[in-house]
Amino acid sequence: LSAVEDQLKMCGHKRDVDVFELFLSQKELTDVIDLSRFKNLKYLWLHHNKLHGIAFLTRNHCLTELYLNNNAIFEIVGLHYLPSLHILLLHHNELTKIDDTVKELKGMLNLKTLSLYQNPLCQYNLYRLYIIYHLPGVELLDRNQVTEKERRSMITIFNHKKAHIIQSIAFGGKVETSWNPKLPLKQKPVQRLPSDFTFADNVDKTMFDNLEDAVFVRSMKRSLMALTTLNWDSVPMREEKFLEEKGPEPPQLLTVTLR
Predict the structure, then answer these.
(1) How many domains is the chain built from?
(2) Which InterPro entries match (predicted)?
(3) pLDDT band at 80, cuts 50/70/90?
(4) Is the Cβ–Cβ distance between 254 and 164 less than 8 Å?
(5) Which of 28, 95, 100, 127 is the most exposed place for a label (fewest CB within 10 A)?
(6) Full-prediction pTM beyond 0.70?
């Protein structure tokens, strides 16, 4: 309470409706009073504190920018009550449940910038594509722009109605990309290489624990190969040449493109 009151005095606000922003960062806060009194609050800085939850924010419907990074937040229940959020920073916290996190953020149609890195949930397999798939409106995730290639990849993996055929040209096997949201995501074990192990500069250094992930990534990176051959059906036989009144048409070529 004192931190909020000090901020109001510093800014010279006498009425709650005049408060559009609050700077409450780096104050060692473990909890914050209910901020619903500030109906017009749009910008809130709460980073670098010791917060564990965000129950005090459920009624600030005008909030557009929320900075909660570098806290100890382990759940964000109630965040879906903030539909106007445009920027949400949650990196360096203790979020572990990726499904619960996505559930809270799904209804935020205005959310464009989101950061979740340095949370335990980021260790899950296909974390980034999973977030992009469930939050298609996000344009900047973990300080990196969401690319069209990532959007195509997440459709291939998570939406089989739009992608019936999965490319499987790698190691002679077919990539199994079925996804069951009810099953828990597998955490990727950390792989360590020997200290004396070196890569050439032209070698992909990405390590995969799952062979199917390696198959999929490799298949998407393969270059295109075009094979061209003569269409012999378009070449007239000797008898046809004599019977035709017009000159023979030039033969046609057939081109097949493979990845």
Answers:
(1) 2
(2) Leu-rich_rpt, LRC72, LRR_dom_sf
(3) confident
(4) no
(5) 28
(6) no
